[in-house]
């Protein structure tokens, strides 16, 4: 059944402002779920197409997609007083590149490819990088795409911009407030806004002044005290279930295949409840998504999200706030800690990180390794910068590689450093 625009908007209003449960409300919820999941097929096709183009891009990147969570959609409808059919980010794709200038280069690259094909169109580009968005400081470039009558949002960020955004996500969970929706104490929101401004200065090649650092540290202390005093403060140890990640790695298809996972994360304990593979077929995907959302309520601290990628390792980069959350003696990093954090990750390119990740996954440490040809032609076939990235890893002493004919393995003496890059 094809849903009318008025029916879709009625479903959005009814769920955003719930009244007494009736048969009609239950039918409208079905319509809501059907409309939301109708974005999955055009989104998956677009992500696959972008991924195929990116093989010729010549730079490092991570790409993943997601279908927006129901609680997020309903909060947005209430917050912005808009209709459901007006939302343009129900289906979203995210690409992370190394530097801010790479964002510009990639936008031009995508526009050039769109002009050659007729599969989807770029309706608008909104750039939040220079000034930051709203009062939050969020920075990214957004491309509004259209495919098969559905609006899709493509976010393109540099690694520093992504690092900031994931820090906000992580802090929001601990604080119990949706900071990116401007929920919470203005002091906490202002801290992240100024932190974003300083990051932008650093990424633009300008060092922050001593005064800026002192000001940010003072703001950080105030913000941290507010979070500690919040009665919704949650501090926990994370124990990400690595067995689930390893199992999913083994279920991945061939290179280039896009897999959609429904992920259930428990923010009370900081670990995954489950990952479930779903296809791109709308009815089965809708059934699984709604089943998990019904079983694991956001009010109880669970998050149910559908994420798609060709490599589970990519999800650890594009949605890193789900991984490695530790107990916080200090909730917010100092500026120097933050700079050290993203500089560590930026010392090597994406291709080098991909090679490190696959060597770790294959447990190639010390004497156990793989030949360069095996890496290039099989395990690391999708790494565009393979030769230069491998050379970088050798120069840094992170891998063992005597010559072009010797096996490649990870340097056990550099294990902690390698873990830091990943």
TrEMBL record:
Residues 65-179 form the RelA/SpoT domain. InterPro entries: GTP_Pyrophosphokinase (IPR052366), NT_sf (IPR043519), RelA_SpoT (IPR007685). One of its GO terms (biological process) is guanosine tetraphosphate metabolic process. SMART domains: RelA_SpoT. This is (P)ppGpp synthetase. It comes from Sphingomonas sanxanigenens.
């Amino acid at each position: 059944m094809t849903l009318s625009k008025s029916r879709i908007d009625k479903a959005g209003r009814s769920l955003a402002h719930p009244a007494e449960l009736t048969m009609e409300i239950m039918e409208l919820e079905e319509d809501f779920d059907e409309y939301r999941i109708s974005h999955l097929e055009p989104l998956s096709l677009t992500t696959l197409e972008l991924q195929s183009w990116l093989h010729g891009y010549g730079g490092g990147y991570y790409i993943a997609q997601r279908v927006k969570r129901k609680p997020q959609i309903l909060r947005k409808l209430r917050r912005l007083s808009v209709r459901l059919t007006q939302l343009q980010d129900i289906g979203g794709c995210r690409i992370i590149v190394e530097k801010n200038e790479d964002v510009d280069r990639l936008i031009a690259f995508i526009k050039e490819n769109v002009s050659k094909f007729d599969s989807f169109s770029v309706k608008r580009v909104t750039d939040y990088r220079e000034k930051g968005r709203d009062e939050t400081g969020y920075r990214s470039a957004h491309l509004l795409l259209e495919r098969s009558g559905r609006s899709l949002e493509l976010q393109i960020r540099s690694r520093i911009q992504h690092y900031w955004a994931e820090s906000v996500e992580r802090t929001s969970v601990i604080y119990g407030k949706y900071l990116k929706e401007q929920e919470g104490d203005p002091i906490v929101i202002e801290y992240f806004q100024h932190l974003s401004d300083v990051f932008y200065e650093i990424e633009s090649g300008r060092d922050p002044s001593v005064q800026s650092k002192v000001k940010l540290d003072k703001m950080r202390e105030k913000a941290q005290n507010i979070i500690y005093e919040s009665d919704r403060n949650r501090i926990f140890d994370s124990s990400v279930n690595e067995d689930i990640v390893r199992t999913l790695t083994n279920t991945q298809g061939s290179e280039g295949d896009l897999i959609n996972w429904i992920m259930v994360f428990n923010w009370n304990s900081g670990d995954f409840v489950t990952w479930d593979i779903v296809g791109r077929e709308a009815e089965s995907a809708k059934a699984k998504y709604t089943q998990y959302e019904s079983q694991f309520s956001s009010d109880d601290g669970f998050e149910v999200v559908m994420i798609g990628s060709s490599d589970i390792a990519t999800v650890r980069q594009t949605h890193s706030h789900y991984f490695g959350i530790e107990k916080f003696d200090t909730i917010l990093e100092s500026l120097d800690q933050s700079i050290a954090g993203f500089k560590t990750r930026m010392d090597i390119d994406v291709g080098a990180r991909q090679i490190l990740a696959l060597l770790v996954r294959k447990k190639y440490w010390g004497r156990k390794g793989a030949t360069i040809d095996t890496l290039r032609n099989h395990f690391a076939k999708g790494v565009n910068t393979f030769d230069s990235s491998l050379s970088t890893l050798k120069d840094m002493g992170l891998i063992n590689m005597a010559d072009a004919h010797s096996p490649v393995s990870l340097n056990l003496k550099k294990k902690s450093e390698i873990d830091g890059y990943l």
